[in-house]
Specification:
35% helix; nine-stranded mixed sheet; homodimer; five-stranded antiparallel sheet; Alpha-Beta Plaits; Aminopeptidase; 16 strands
Chain lengths: 417, 417
């Protein structure tokens, strides 16, 4: 049920922006970014600030055993599952003000707007704050939503330790977020997450809203090429077993393979280690990472097969052993058509430029999509940069994305009769 | 003047081998190598052992201001400049038993053999022990011979410091090798150096003696390709500025350029640094080393021009800035035809398999060649490996190279009437 009154409802952009800037002071870095590692004292302070605002807005608080926080605004019908929106408050060590934080505060701004307008929804509305999305201090990444969705065992997550040996469970207890609710034992009607794009597409195309269709699947490999280290001077070219020369050809192939699997195929070599890495020594071994992405698992399988065959052929012709070791993989995750359509409808109704797109990065929404209908709303970020202290977004886009979220939440939660 | 008696003279292979093994105990590493850094306490012990043997063999000792040691066996005519042979006693941190050490002890073995046979030469014979050839603890490399030849100013060499801040001059004084002779103020009639090949050619061709024509010139560059770091997931292939993809193409070109300048052209990329070197981040900058070698400076110039033009073209087509910064260069150094011929004659007379070849690595002989007629004698080393604890050479080859040196020294010093 909708009404022309709620169709005209708009969030308070300056309030949302002000809260983003206040939250960014917790863990603020000299270069304008934020360092608020998961389950640190600063994470506790960030959570306390947001939970405090939510309490002032009349919301109740529940915490599960992995520290996920659910802030609830009651609906008319307490038997309906809540319509949930949120993201995470932890950041990278040199993170920005928007990644995750925007999704949480946009959800809070939706609630504030409904409160201000005296709008009552049929279903409850909840804000989710997921624990340790970034994975900087504790691996795996997207830990809270992963445990919630049953993808990561609670015991495994609890046992994860940071470089100083402190466990997730101990740190949850220390900061007061070791809750009692069993993760996942928390029905949801739908989940939406507003997020900066973390890529350049919206900005370059001057489009305000990204209607996210799902996330790319990922296959990570380590590739090790073994040659024979030797002096650069006395070793004639024909007698060399130069591991880097073979590795470089494979590095070019990683990108070529992405081009052979359009339009969403992506291939990246991000990390290279050369041994012994000395100016006048022919490299004896080169290890490098391979990151392959695509929007269906079948295409990912094809890309993985392609790199395996290319490596095998190159090993055959060069005589150098090439190992290709799987490191980890994430399946492609499509979002619910009903949620995708709802986001698109809202953007259109608001007169905002929008386009359908795939998310190349992982988000908590990837895991919620396994257990509840899920959608995402992207807004542009400056130069496509994130995970960086210079991460930035325009106030108008921040506001626009939140208005889309408001309409989507209203549509899904329904107006109380 | 030669005689059938001296033509039949042979060095004492087991004695030479035993001394190599004794010397290798000073700084011996658990893996069978040697760590005897220049001007360390172990360097002092190594020098003391060899100088002690030389004194027992009746030789006099002179030390210059950069710590080069000249051990002299008198000839009949004290006005003739000495015929000199030697090398260095310092090693790499994980060096072997033969590099440098062989050249010094082979020269000593020549003297012992002449003493045993009661052979008197016309000109004096000297053993040179050059300071800090390796350059591991103090740069530049080949310091002692470089100062001797006037290529490195004494004050510059004295001022060089190790990572703990200790200077060459202080360390020379501490180990008792800050001599008074002005470097270079020491005439030589000729200089010969016996050395392991440090490459695979002799071993693979089953040849015992390398008649060295000179050394390859070297040009070192640092290449920096600057792209834009970005998330591997959300950044479509067409919007990337992947520094590693362009760098990899240039790395392949470094080797291709060597192939375009045969037969002695060599091209090596030994060192690579990727920034930020993270698995899921498109590299924003890649820095790598370029090592180009050839046997004439004109060919080196052509290779350097080739890599500059290739980099410029690649920068043009990719739009990514590519910097090519000269790091250092060494000119190609041909040896004296008279010395080359003498080595070849001796190998032939001894019935040893031999071939003419270029040295790809630097040696003290590169600097002596600037001030006196110079030649080198190479022997095979196992798998072409040096600067490594597993560096090895066969006793028969060690002996053969020393016999060639004996004949060459005899020919140049002449038999006393």
């Amino acid at each position: 049920m909708r009404s022309s009154a709620t169709d005209a409802l708009r969030i308070d952009g300056p309030r949302l922006w002000q809260r983003l800037m206040m939250l960014a002071e917790i863990g603020a870095t000299p270069k304008g970014g934020v360092c608020r590692l998961a389950l640190s004292e600063l994470d506790r302070q960030g959570r306390a600030l947001v939970v405090g605002w939510a309490r002032q807005a009349g919301m109740t608080v529940a915490v599960d055993q992995i520290g996920n926080v659910f802030l609830r605004r009651m609906g008319r019908d307490p038997t309906l599952p809540p319509i949930v929106s949120g993201s995470h408050l932890d950041t990278q060590p040199t993170g920005g003000k928007f990644d995750g934080n925007y999704g949480v505060l946009a959800a809070l701004e939706v609630v504030e707007t409904l409160n201000d307008a005296g709008v009552r929804t049929e279903a409850p509305i909840e804000i989710a704050i997921w624990t340790n999305e970034e994975g900087s201090r504790f691996v795996p990444v997207m830990m809270g939503s992963g445990v919630f969705a049953g993808a990561i065992p609670l015991a495994h997550a609890w046992a994860a330790r940071d470089t100083e040996g402190r466990s997730v469970k101990d740190e949850l207890a220390r900061i007061g977020y070791l809750g009692t609710q069993v993760p996942g034992d928390h029905p949801m009607g739908a989940y939406f997450e507003a997020h900066i794009e973390q890529g350049p597409v919206l900005e370059q195309e001057e489009t305000t809203i990204g209607v996210v269709l799902g996330t790319l699947g990922v296959r990570w490999f380590d590739c090790i090429v073994t040659g024979m280290e030797a002096h650069a001077g006395p070793t004639p070219m024909a007698m060399r077993q130069d591991a880097l020369q073979i590795a470089a050809r494979l590095m070019l192939e990683v990108v070529a393979i992405a081009g052979r699997h359009p339009p969403h195929g992506r291939g990246t070599v991000g990390m290279v280690q050369v041994h012994p890495n000395s100016r006048n020594v022919i490299p004896g071994q080169v290890k490098f990472s391979i990151d392959l992405r695509n929007h269906t698992d079948a295409l990912l399988d094809a890309m993985a097969k392609d790199i395996r065959e290319t490596a095998a052929a190159l090993s055959e012709t060069s005589g150098l052993p090439i190992q290709l070791e799987p490191v980890s993989s994430y399946p492609a995750q499509p979002f619910a058509p009903s949620c995708i359509d709802a986001v698109e409808r809202a953007a259109r109704a608001l007169g905002l430029s929008h386009r359908r797109m795939i998310s190349g990065a992982g988000h908590d929404a990837v895991y919620t999509a396994r257990v509840t209908p899920t959608g995402m709303i992207f807004i542009p970020c400056k130069d496509g940069i994130s995970h960086n202290e210079i991460e930035d977004a325009a106030p108008a886009d921040v506001e626009a994305g939140c208005n889309v979220l408001l309409q989507v939440m209203l549509e899904c939660a329904g107006l109380a009769a």
